[in-house]
Every structure is written in C-alpha cells, then in structure tokens.
C-alpha cells in the first residue's frame, strides 16, 4: 500500500523514450570504412572513460539496434537516459556515459568507399 501522494513507477527507471539522433555533419566528408573504424576505436576504449563494462556493452548493443530493441536494451540494463538520442546516459550508480553522435548514426556527408 502506497502513500496517498505517491505515483506509480514506470518500472524501468529510464523515463525517456529513445529517438533517432538529429542529422549531423562530420568536419570533413568521410567514408563508411572510416566511420566504422572510428566506431570500433570508440567502443574499444569506452570502458577506460569510467563506468561499468556491462553498461558500455549494453549501450553499444543499443546504438547498433533499431529503436524498439534499443529501448528494451537500455531499460533492461537499468540505463537512465538523460538525452533521448543516447548521447548522455547514467547507470543506476550515477556514472555518466557520453556517446558521440558518430556511434549512433551516420553523418550527412558520408561518402562511398573508393
């Protein structure tokens, strides 16, 4: 039995629904392979920025999934979404996770590999 002033909880704790990131442009045109290399380097080094490896793994899986699956991943991992495009998130212990836009979507000036 709850307090008269209490409200039902959402159960997932995230509070925000994930959305696709806004369009962005890289400083210079890049190829798909260059973008993939940047992403690989980020995910390889991400745990060194702090936080827990399992949260980084969940964020990577969410970044690479469609929006519905991404929402389920962050909800089940207990990720608190500060910015609905996943650029800023927190875990249940308060550790901050910042994701660059290039791991979440492709730039508008992406060029074909030659």
UniProtKB/TrEMBL annotation:
Pfam families: UBD. It comes from Rubroshorea leprosula. This is DC-UbP/UBTD2 N-terminal domain-containing protein. Transmembrane segments: none annotated. Coiled coil: none annotated. Residues 1-31 are annotated as: Disordered. Residues 16-25 have a biased composition (Basic residues). Residues 16-113 form the DC-UbP/UBTD2 N-terminal domain.
């Amino acid at each position: 039995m709850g307090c008269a002033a209490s409200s039902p909880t959402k159960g997932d704790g995230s509070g925000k629904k994930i959305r696709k990131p806004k369009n962005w442009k890289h400083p210079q045109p890049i190829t798909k392979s260059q973008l993939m290399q940047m992403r690989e380097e980020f995910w390889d080094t991400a745990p060194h920025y702090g936080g827990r490896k399992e949260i980084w793994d969940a964020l990577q899986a969410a970044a690479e999934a469609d929006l519905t699956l991404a929402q389920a991943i962050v909800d089940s991992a207990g990720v608190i979404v500060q910015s609905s495009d996943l650029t800023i998130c927190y875990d249940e212990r308060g550790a901050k996770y910042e994701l660059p836009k290039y791991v979440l979507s492709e730039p508008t000036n992406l060029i074909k590999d030659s």
